[in-house]
Write a structure and sequence with these properties.
There is one protein chain. With 306 residues, this protein is α+β, with helices and mostly antiparallel strands. It is built from 11 helices and 12 strands. A hairpin with a 2-residue loop joins strand 6 and strand 7. Helix 3 packs parallel to helix 6. It starts with a helix and ends in a 9-residue tail after the last strand.
Length: 306
């Protein structure tokens, strides 16, 4: 339903008032059609019940990845950059300190059901893969129709190939769509990958949306490592907790804008109200550098591309 609603909004936005950006919008609309068709047909759907014991709530997802060979492939993967042992140790210890009791239970569930010598260190390094300086991730757009209805689209264009049972598979093959339940009702939905406890692409029903995008400022791994040792947070864990707890767009924007993060990045967010959209250019360490763009909001008067 969320995908259908997005597509309907995208179509309406595309057929609204023409502009000098019409060719770009037309291309984006066609891309959205392709992505929607692939998503509706190919992305496995799972429920994660927040009222279930944390160690058990991801079981169905974990066994899906285990059966397809993805956990074994990712565990044995040596084709992609690996952190130096001393750096990996810092990240493992620092991220471990950010896991509350609930997250800790979920991590134990991955170790319990994942098999293939899956380790705590491997799961934690997957949780912090952005902060540990992996290549650029994805793109997104937020726009509004003339009546203020907000359209939020995002792609998942980062391809990391791993060998799974003799076959090369990429992130599109490993992507699933998870609906988090609370009190038997859908709370939020997230497009996610193996061994992820937090969120990078998600929507709270009747509330707000969230996506994260890459922001590179130079010497990132060294500076991120120093920042996480000083309490800088891994964004996926923080974003999930905020989305679970905060029902409205405005409060969510304020909380995330004030976050102490381990790495610079962009957050793109929208709400259910007219013109509720924002781009947050985040710096590390809980500060906003004067050289960084300010919090940019969508509104009737501001049609600037950011």
């Amino acid at each position: 339903q969320a995908h259908s609603h997005f597509l309907a909004q995208a179509a309406a936005a595309h057929t609204a008032a023409p502009s000098e950006n019409e060719p770009v919008l037309a291309l984006m609309f066609l891309i959205s059609l392709v992505l929607f068709a692939w998503s509706a047909a190919g992305v496995p759907q799972f429920n994660v019940d927040l009222d279930v014991d944390p160690e058990e709530r991801w079981k169905e997802v974990i066994l899906y990845y285990k059966d397809m060979g993805a956990i074994e492939g990712l565990t044995l993967d040596e084709a992609h950059p690996q952190p130096a042992p001393d750096v990996a140790k810092v990240w493992t210890e620092s991220v471990q300190s950010q896991l509350d009791e609930d997250f800790e239970g979920e991590l134990r569930g991955w170790l319990k059901y994942g098999g293939f010598n899956l380790t705590r260190e491997k799961v934690i390094q997957n949780i912090a893969m952005y902060e540990m300086n992996y290549p650029n991730y994805c793109s997104g757009i937020v726009a509004a129709m003339p009546n203020g209805t907000v359209v939020h689209g995002r792609n998942m264009d980062y391809l990391l190939f791993v060998e799974v049972k003799g076959k090369m598979m990429g992130w599109p093959d490993l992507t699933v769509d998870v609906t988090f339940l609370r009190d038997g009702q859908p709370l939020m939905t997230s497009v996610t990958w193996p061994m992820q406890l937090g969120i990078h692409t998600a929507m709270r029903f009747d509330g707000w949306t969230f996506e994260q995008n890459t922001r590179r400022l130079g010497n990132d791994l060294e500076l991120n490592t120093a920042a996480v040792q000083q309490g800088g947070q891994v964004f996926t864990l923080l974003a999930r907790r905020v989305m679970e707890r905060v029902p409205d767009f405005e409060t969510a924007v304020k909380e995330l804008w004030s976050a102490n993060l381990a790495a610079p990045q962009y957050f793109i967010m929208t709400g259910a109200g007219p013109f509720e959209g924002a781009v947050l250019s985040m710096d590390r360490g809980g500060v906003h550098e004067t050289s960084s763009p300010p919090l940019m909001r969508l509104n009737e008067e501001n049609n600037t591309w950011h």
